[in-house]
Structures are given as C-alpha cells and as structure tokens.
Amino acid sequence: MSKSIQLIFITLFFITSSCITKKESSSIVSLETTYGKVKVRLYPETTKHRENFLLLVKKGFYDGVLFHRVIVDFMIQAGDPNSKNSLPNAQLGAGDVGYTIPAEFIYPQYYHKRGALSAARMGDQSNPLKASSGCQFYIVQGRILTDEELNGLEKSNQQKLEANLFKDIMATKQEQIKGYNMEHNQQKINTLRDSILLEVGKLMQKNTSYKFTEQQRKDYKTVGGTPHLDGNYSVFGEVIEGLDIVEKISKTKKGQNDRPIEDLKIIKAEIVK
What we know:
Elements: H1 3-24, E1 27-33, E2 36-42, H2 47-58, E3 67-71, E4 75-78, E5 100-101, E6 116-119, E7 132-133, E8 137-140, H3 147-171, H4 174-183, H5 186-206, H6 214-222, E9 235-241, H7 243-250, E10 266-271
Antiparallel strand pairs: 1-2, 1-10, 2-9, 3-4, 4-8, 5-7, 6-8, 6-9
C-alpha cells in the first residue's frame, strides 16, 4: 500500500470514528432542585434539542427557574425565564428565549414513559408543525395504565391516522369534487368517496404506527407514563436518578394554574458527563 493511500485510509478512519462517537455520545445533566438532585440523560439522536439544552445549561439559564406547573400523575414543568424572582401569584408559562426548536420525534424508540424529559410547546392551532419551546421542558411522572386503556388509545390513534390519510387524499381530489358539485352529480361524489376509503384501508394495512410496541406496553403497564402525548411532543432525554424527587415535586400543594404554592426551583443545572 502506497503512503498516499495509507494517509487517505487513516484520515477516513478518524473521520468515521469521530462521526460514530458523536452519534453515540450522550450527556448527563444534574438539576439540583429545592427537594434534591435529578439527573437526566440526553438522547444523542435528538440533536437539536440536546445541543440547545446543553447550551442553556452552560449559560446558567436554568439556574433559579421555578417548576411553575405541576400536575400529580402527569408531569412537572420548568424553564420559564419569567419565573425567576416572580411574585407569588404571578401567572407563568409564557416566557421564552425568542426561538423554537423543530420537532424531533424519534418514535417509537423514545416515548413518554415515567421519567421522560420532553419539550413543552404551543398548541397545534398556532403551531401545526409542533415546534418545541426553546427553553421550557417537562418531566413525566404519569401513571400506570391497563391493557384496556392502552387498547382504547390505540383505537383512538388509529381513527386519527385514518382521518388524516383521508383528508390528505381528499386534498388531491379537489378539482374532481368541484366538478362533480357543479354537475350536481352525487353518484360520482359517492363513488370517489368510496374509492378514497378503499385506498385508506390499503394504506392502513401497511401502517401500524398507531400501535404500541411490546416495550411500550410493558413500560406503560409497570412504571407508567403519559402515552397520549406520544408523537406530539419531542422526547429528548430521561431521568436516570431522582424519580422520587420528581414525584415529590408533582405532589406539592398548588395554587392557580397548577403553580406550586411553595417556590420549587432548579437551584443549579450543570453538565456532569
């Protein structure tokens, strides 16, 4: 092997190794709260959320923010910059950093099991692409579900998927529908509808994304979670230490808008790995 080829080989090896390391890397962040420490691991696949969260942690952005919204058997939310030094009865939750993060749904690999770290966001009406808040996040506490409940959620997800597929196909047939309406030809409209329903049925036979995986079912039936949020909010990490602290925070006494009466804050956030 010539020296030039050896050099190219070595260069490619290090580039490849570097890329693999970067892809497989993950970070652990410690959140020192009023009630104790919570450690979270950030997923390497949710690159945009991971890098943004780490950047804010390095800047000290989360130091002093409150858990401004807590709901038992659901989640605890933080990250509003307006919560620092806020008045006791102030309504919180609208603060941001002036930008959003594109949605990163790594589903069904990552989902809303107990301890999931997810990005908060504005509702679908004003945010149809489900972009995440640039700073606000929540940690899932959730609850344990039964097979019957999970089956019901699957059925609901299936119906939503069918409706969306029907809507998407209908959008491509608007000229036909317009023509049939002008002709007052209800028979052709009915025939077109039936053909679209048949097409949706065929697509649904190949699409099982509405079903929970075996691992999801196991987790939701044992450790619990909030499965109705799957596919709607970006999950970018999980708690690896301090789930008892998350539960304690979720059960604190609350006032208006689910804000804890006692100020519960992130005293210090830091990257530990």
